[in-house]
Amino acid sequence: MTKNPLLQEFDTPPFQSIKEEHYKVAIKKAIEIAKEEIDAIVNATAKPTFENTTVALSNVGEKLGRITPIFFNLNSAETNEEIQKIAKEISPWLSEFKNDMILNESLFKKVKAVYDQKNTLTLTPEQSMLLDKQYKRFSRNGANLSDSDKNELRKFDTELAKLSLQFGENVLADTNTFEMLITNEEDLSGLPEGAKEAAKLLATQKEKDGWLFTLDYPSYIPFMTYADNRELRKKLAIAMGKKGFQDNKNNNESIVLNIVEIRHKRAQLLGYNSHAHFVLEERMAESPEKVLSFLNNLLEKAKPAAEREFKNLENYAKNLDGIDRLEKWDGSYYSEKLKKELFDLDQEALKPYFKLENVIDGVFEIANRLFDLKFEEIDTIDKYHEDVKTYKVINTKGAFISHFYADFHPRPGKRNGAWMTSYKSQQIKNGLNDRPQVSIVCNFTKPTETKPSLLTFNEVTTLFHEFGHALHGMLANTTYKSLSGTSVSWDFVELPSQVLENWCYEKEALELFAKHYETGETIPMEYVEKIKESATFHEGMQTLRQLSFGLLDMSWHSGNTSEITSVKDFELRAFGDTKLYPDVPENCMSTAFSHIFQGGYSAGYYSYKWAEVLDADAFEYFKEEGIFNKEIATKFKDHVLSKGGTEKPMELYKRFRGKEPKPEALLKRAGLI
Question: Does the model's pTM come out above 0.85?
Answer without folding.
Answer: yes
